Amino acid sequence: MSAPLTAWVEGVGLLGPGLPGWAAAAEVLSGRAPYEARTTVIPPLECLPPAERRRTGKVVRLALSVGLEAVRNAGADAATLHAVFSSSGGDGENCHEICQVLAGAERQISPTRFHNSVHNAASGYWGIATGATAASNALCAHDASFAAGLLEALAQIRTDETAVLLIAYDADYPEPIRARRPIPDTFGVALLLTPTATKGSLARISAELSTAPAVLLPDTRLEALRAQVPAARSLPFLQMLARGEPGTVVIDYLEEQRLQLVVSPWH
Amino acid sequence: MTPLALTAFTATSCLGRGLDATLAALEAGRTGLVPCAFETVTLDTHVGEVPGVDAAHLPPELGEFDCRNNRLALLGLRQDGFDQAVRAAAGRLGPGRIGVWLGTSTSGILETELAYRRRDPATGALPGDFRYRGAHNTFSVAAFVRRALGLEGPAAVISSACSSSAKVFASARRAIAAGLVDAAVVGGVDSLCLTTLYGFHSLQLVARNPCRPFDVARDGLSIGEAAAFALLERPVKSLAADSVLLLGTGESSDAWHMSAPHPEGRGAGAAMTEALVAARLTAADIDYINFHGTGTPSNDAAEARAVAAVLGERVPGSSTKGATGHTLGAAGGLEAVICALALRHGLMPGGVNTSAVDPELRVSYLRDSRRARLGRVMSNSFGFGGSNCSLIFGRAG
């Protein structure tokens, strides 16, 4: 990489097992509060019209919830933002239901199931919910999906000089796919990133490709989460952000390369 | 934006393998759509199936990626010397300096659909040969192409339904401009599967006969499959006159409906406008438009309104989906390559199957292929979830 890609973090949204929102999660990740493993709770989604809300699965509710939290924490206007959605598996429950019906005699899948099957379903519902009409992307890079989404957002910030909302999210599959892709629970993280600092900036980040090994988490339960959920590969970086201390962290990306992030708290 | 050169490109669809077969079919106004005989599908429709996909065998060391979608990808990579061109570029730039951004909507889902028929009757478990990472996962086509070409740079799949492999051009141009890579393999690969055939059928969007984009009697789309690739690089100073450049990209969101376009084509118009601004061009500079033109009543109506509003009613355009079918996540890539052929050979491909253009659609729709010197062309791609992308390509000289 010729020069590191930089951005300012304006707001964070987070939902995961025992991590109910960024404020509570930051206490845990910084070591100020103990980690208590609990199933992820996704709050009801008030931002969609009732007809649309009924059609959404938990993956879409997860993505929209963390996205809205990051926007709220940054005091930003969701309707004005570019967005990058990145997910390893998208809506696994919906995929399972479709495959089950297609394996039967009738093969009559519901229209809602079909339009929810697109990998950009969360991005589509986000637009309907917030009125955001700017570019929105929908990425997948298997276990590398968080870092791939972050790189996409950082490249966009560098070249188009615009704020970008990154939303990385994954949900557990039902059986029988679960046995072959054992993601234990849902996890979503959103970062509102801007090209220049504002009064509310949390930190400046500077990213480069690296071959150094990824940082592991000292808490064995959080480390298990990091290793098992692609979106949770963000946790070592989020921990640094939660501590509010400067430092360097390496997170997982593709098999032979990682992403190094230099984090500089702003206040 | 700074223009990028398409230093190599290729396409494989139901029109044939590689550029010569594709160009010959477009010139002759031939359709590749045939009555659907895919797998065990019993729908009364036409599809654009690529013959011989299953005869493409992945090398043993890449066996974990074996699925119909990656077989089609391999078939596509081997046409027109595309794979050799990428290897040569990797030798020049370094394999870590070339990224891979590919579009697909369904990846290797066909293998999962078939595996669900073979679940253990007692436990419900999937058969042992089900492979999540190499076949099922949406990223598998980019992981496979990256490995098959020996590349080590950044990679991602963009899966935004039918705009997927148009949007990869925008992501790649940002990655090159940001210095993340020096070159990028972009394109799209999508293959026939039951999810899309029965899914579009459930939405009553599938035509019985070969699709007729922009026709007054259009009644839906025909599904196709394709693998299309381009190698994007910063242009050298002495480009040949018939070299093709990516001049502009534009992306937008409808923020309207999950499976229907905004009726006035609001997002479509925004994407076209953004592409023009990025290319520093105006409507008068565009010589031909390759429409998204799926053949559904609502898509073509919304697109025509947006085109008329942004480019006026005089720019000639056509949808090539009457020839290729709608190749979904590969459509943006396939139609980018068709635009590159149009520029290189001075050919505006006519929209086959369309006999009476809908008078409500106020665009200059080309039914017959026409020879003309083309300087700059636009390609539109719009997808479910209101995801829109417009690309502008031009000749170097």
Question: Nutshell version of this structure?
Answer:
The complex is a heterodimer of chains A (267) and B (397). With 267 residues, chain A is α+β, with helices and mostly antiparallel strands. Chain A has helices at residues 22-29, 50-55, 58-74, 92-102, 111-116, 121-130, 145-160, 220-228, 235-243, and strands at residues 5-16, 19-20, 82-86, 136-140, 164-170, 187-194, 203-210, 247-252, 258-265.
Architecture blueprint of SSEs:
The complex is a heterodimer of chains A (267) and B (397).
Chain A: E1 5-16, E2 19-20, H1 22-29, H2 50-55, H3 58-74, E3 82-86, H4 92-102, H5 111-116, H6 121-130, E4 136-140, H7 145-160, E5 164-170, E6 187-194, E7 203-210, H8 220-228, H9 235-243, E8 247-252, E9 258-265
Parallel strand pairs in A: 3-4, 3-5
Antiparallel strand pairs in A: 1-2, 1-6, 1-7, 5-6, 7-9, 8-9
Helix pairs in contact in A: 1-9, 3-6
Chain B: E1 4-13, E2 16-17, H1 18-28, E3 34-35, E4 46-48, H2 68-77, H3 82-93, E5 98-103, H4 109-116, H5 132-136, H6 140-148, E6 155-158, H7 164-177, E7 183-190, H8 194-202, E8 223-224, E9 226-233, E10 244-253, H9 266-279, E11 288-290, H10 297-311, E12 316-318, H11 321-324, H12 331-345, E13 347-348, E14 364-365, E15 370-371, E16 376-383, E17 387-395
Parallel strand pairs in B: 4-8, 5-6, 5-7, 11-12, 11-16, 12-14
Antiparallel strand pairs in B: 1-2, 1-9, 1-10, 3-4, 7-9, 10-17, 13-15, 16-17
